[in-house]
Give the backbone structure.
Amino acid sequence: MAKRKKDNEDQPDENQGNADDSADNFGLPDIEYKPLDRDAEAPQNVSTEPVTEQPESPQGRLTNEETTYTYEDDEPRSNAPLIISLIIGVVILVGGFLVYKYWYVPKGEKEKQERLAREAEEKRKADEALAKQKEEEERQRLKADSIANAKPAEGAIETLSERTRRYYVVVTSNIDDDLMMDYAKKLSAKGVSSKIIPPFGSVKFFRLAIADFDTFSAAQSSADASKAEYGSALWVIRY
């Protein structure tokens, strides 16, 4: 009896191992398995061409099995640009109004006032010029009337005693000095001054001159102008 008990002690406790395995498997049967050989089971006809990825559309992503679209919520847009634009527009309008009111309108009013002032000054000057012209015309008229109504002053009678080397406009000549004096007095009564030139050289006549000049041309011009009043018998001599 003692020997059997020893043999039983020497044998491995298989039941104990089985009991431990049963405890690990929770009482389920054992399943044999082995690792898969990926190289052996890989398909032989595998394409080595690169797979081109299809571009993603804005609405969604395209897959091999089906096309799915994903939509993203639109982000709320900012109103800042619109508000800034409105503010700039308001500032421009206000600035334009202020420029028009405080610069353009006063400038136009100032130019208008200056224009009216210039026109008034021009009118005043024109009125003054017209008044002066009328005053001068009236003065000339009164002067002409006074000359016409006034008694002419007597002209001077002068008898030359020596030669002067001047040119004289002669209206008449006479051998008698008394007759010459009578004619000179008639001219004097009309306000015409005259000079009696005594005989000189081979001429024995007295001559009566009404003007004298430094040059012959001036004396001749005076003689031509006086022919309408004294007749065409005027001539020029040098004494």
